[in-house]
Amino acid sequence: MRFGIVVFPGSNCDMDCYHVIDQVLGHPVSYIWHQEKDLTGFDCIILPGGFSYGDYLRSGAIARFSPVMEAVAEFAAKGGLVLGICNGFQILLEAGLLPGAMMRNNCLQFRCQDVYLKVETNETPFTNIYRAGEVIRMPIAHGEGNYYAAPEALAELEENGQVVFRYCTPGGEVTTEANPNGSCNNIAGICNKERNVLGLMPHPERCAEEILGNTDGKKLFLSILSWWEGQRCEEVLGCG
Amino acid sequence: MFQARIFVTLKDGVLDPQGAAVKTALTSLGYERVADVRVGKYIVLSLGHSNREEAEKEVREMCERLLANPVIENYFFELQEVSS
Amino acid sequence: MFQARIFVTLKDGVLDPQGAAVKTALTSLGYERVADVRVGKYIVLSLGHSNREEAEKEVREMCERLLANPVIENYFFELQEVSS
Amino acid sequence: MAEQKPLWKEMGLTAEEYQRICELLGREPNYVETGMFAVLWSEHCAYKNSRPVLKLFPTSGPQVLQGPGENAGVVDIGDGQAVVFKIESHNHPSAIEPYQGAATGVGGIVRDIFAMGARPIAILNSLRFGTLESPRVRYLFGGVVSGIADYGNCLGIPTVGGEVYFHPSYNDNPLVNAMCVGLVEHDQIKRGRASGVGNPVMLVGAPTGRDGIHGATFASEELSEESEDRRPAVQVGDPFMEKLLIEACLEVIQTGCVVGIQDLGAAGLTSACAETAARAGTGIEIDVSLVPRREEGMTPYEVMLSESQERMLLIPEQGKEELVQQIFHKWGLNAVVIGRVTGDGIFRVKEGGNLVAEVPVKALTEEAPVYYRTPRVPEYYEKCRYWPVERLPVPEDFNKVLLTLLEHPTIASKEWVYRQYDHMVLINTVLRPGGDAAVLRIKGTKKGIGLTTDGNSRYCYLDPYLGGMIAVAEAARNLSCVGAKPLGLTDCLNFGNPEKPEIFWQFQEVVKGMSEACKVLEIPVVSGNVSFYNETEGVAVYPTPVVGMVGLLSDVTKYCSPGFKEPGDHIVLLGPLTGHLGASEYLAVIHGCEAGPVPEIDLLQEKAVQDCCRELINQGLVKSAHDCSEGGLAVALAECCIAGGIGANLELEIEGREDAFLFGEVQSRIVITCVPRHLEKVREVARSFGVPVRLLGRVGGKRLLIRDLRGRVLVDLVVKEMEEKWRGSLSKAMG
Ligand SMILES: Nc1ncnc2c1ncn2[C@@H]1O[C@H](COP(=O)(O)OP(=O)(O)O)[C@@H](O)[C@H]1O
Ligand SMILES: [Mg+2]
Question: What global pTM score does this model have?
Fold first, then answer.
């Protein structure tokens, strides 16, 4: 399976994602400069964390106009997997590939810490090897992770099961105290209706190795691989 | 030549944590008659346009495409002719 | 009751990275007649004051003490009477 | 009519210095030249008051690839890899504009690191503020922390460690020291040298504005009412620009065409050009009209002295100009040839066809004045030392004392600070902030590095010689606690006005003490920075040397952390089990007394304790390790309990005052734990190092229970309660 990691001016988790895919998963991966317009040959595109264009004005606002984003939209429309982490999530929102908008954390401070997440659905290419309802631990590092969507949009997300991760207590309760940024309904990650585009604020690439003390994030990448294997099996053998 | 003064504010109904924090700070400094605070952006563009309508059309476009996020923000602007 | 609209801008000569980034973005979107962009803050206060002078004095004070950073920023404001 | 101050005086030069400049030039300098001399001969750039003293530092060792004198020091970590590091102050700008002052401080030190060709992999910060009761101090503290956070976070360099102390001596003059660490392959190491006559001199990065003109001279003055008027001197940082600059510079260096590279820091173009030429023994010629500007109508003087941030000077091989430009343009940055390297040793500045300055490079650099100040022992010294601290009453309730100490901002958790810093980006952070030192893995190897900053200024005030020693020893001890062997150190020496004999004495004694510790512990000084004139209205801050240290773990998986791990583990003290009252945080916080003798330190014993601790960690005999610093043994034990989320039960053999025993800051001590079956082995290893070792008790339960041998309960506190005080303190204070 071939991964592409988009590099915007100001991306800074690009190298981390690269390391995980290359060294931990052992799959082919390459960087995609934001001026690139052609994504053929890739099976999964990652928009990494960081501060594209300094996040000046609004996070993700300027990056969404990068030439590559048109290609990403096309790629997604054709069913390709798109994973936006942190700043990548913000860019997906600004680009309209996912609904809603991101606001400043309600504490008005940047927050770097571990959070607990409830995996709300495992019926996505990104979460299929987690158990539904499983509680996992993942680091966050952001100043603008306060997810907002208008009430109707929010209701729709919930109805369609598009909320993938929610901030919770270690025991799995979804409470205000467990919410590090004030996001609506404790939302930490959502997918599109077609379920092939995922955006999340926490960083799975920061918890995919034993030496870093946590491997809960590795399962997200393994889910992608397992989904891919399933797809290929369907295509090649007509099974499934 | 024109100058555009653009004001971007959060929509009513969208919680403004920054405004709330400023209000708390002002209250604790003793300004108790401040009933509400909203914090937005103030963007000033210097434009090389010579035609007002054209300038207006373009500023509106810039606001909708980039300067404001319609999901959470409103904008309005004032356009002023300036000498170069 | 009054409403104060406060504009906080960077002093002339002070680097405005936000403005510079927005200008580059607008240019690359094709708005080439944008000669300069400055990004500042727009703060709206709802005040319970009944007296204009008093309101004005207090708003000025709030700006100097909290809302603007006199080291790098300038401010100005407009005061408008509003019905409650 | 009021008499006009002469220009040179206005710019901060003395009459003798001006005289000397005239002699060196054989004529009077013009306006631009006077400005250039003024900045390069300022304390900040020339180290004119500190140079003779700094010679005391040992700076060599087999691991040292680059000692002081370059943009940063470099030490070998094996496998052809090296770490590059340096610490620097940004005190004065942060006192005026905390957010931007601290942010640009981070920006500056990061540039020093990638100027060496290294990729920056970590930032640390050492901070000193006044007391948090003051709204101004809270404003400064909040602003500095978010300035560091926003800048480092945007760069994607993790801020993994640091320290914060609060003391009234910093009320108006906070200290903001930032350290950066980079990783480089030996053959990629670059230097700030303008070598190769004919090579182009390129200016890359941000355009030049009127920012911070005379920042260097500003940093070489005491703060006063007038400083407020100099406010426009404050620069604004653009971390996004810096991020692009890092990537572009590292990409250009990869091509192998870079001969020399230098950041533009204090004194901007003037110092970057002069220093690179001086190091290479060449001359340099530039044309200011080629410098990209942000503002219109700038004079040559303003261009030469501007301290606009996010700029670098690059000297590539001749003919590689276009290659450099291509790479920079890809990143959306300027890269402009502004001059070339010459062979005549002259620094020549033109504006188009006009010559605006022409000065021998050496006159600006090597000929800068050096002052040998005479020290004088201050009056307070003897008085404080012999103040009868032992007459203070012993408190009744040690629980209360311990809780008060845990809640004191200097001892309390700094989570409020470091949760604002992205400390995990680059995914190397194995041991996060909150321990004794941060541990980073080196990807693709088994290795790790330990990083820390330390410096107790109360010790240095009461006894600068001992204080200097302890600063070095404590930093090394923090590294040893995580299992890292110290490789080298960088120092930031923050003092008052060195022209005052008492201040100079503090400075000299601190450096002597540090040097002595460096020698015995075999840790060379590879880079550093001096910040003088940290005074407000004539009152100096406490003498504050900050030691930044880097250590190596040959197997990173063996790293050790401070938290107690499992019920039943034995708690063992390495080092002396004694008491000491003098100079402690306990005396200051509980008795309001800053006096008494500073704890003695036996450097050989210190070395043995540290070597022993690392050996135990290396052999896998130790499950946790934590050193005893501010707040003494009791606070160290409380911290181990909190970090592990588990209690402990101890019995101490106490002689003399209990408070001196529980809260005294005796040096060379580390609290470790091990499983019971390893206890004998631990004892054996300790004995082989000649280190006192004593079983204190066991891990377990929900409370910290400390009794003396007669069974009297001294401390009995629920861990949760201690944790609440300790963890919540700073958030509470900051609202
Ligand atoms: N300003 C800071 N930035 C980042 N980390 C910090 C800061 N201050 C403290 N820390 C973290 O908290 C730990 C404990 O701080 P401190 O009690 O001062 O340590 P020690 O006494 O062991 O030097 C530090 O080692 C560091 O990891
Ligand atoms: Mg320590």
Answer: 0.95
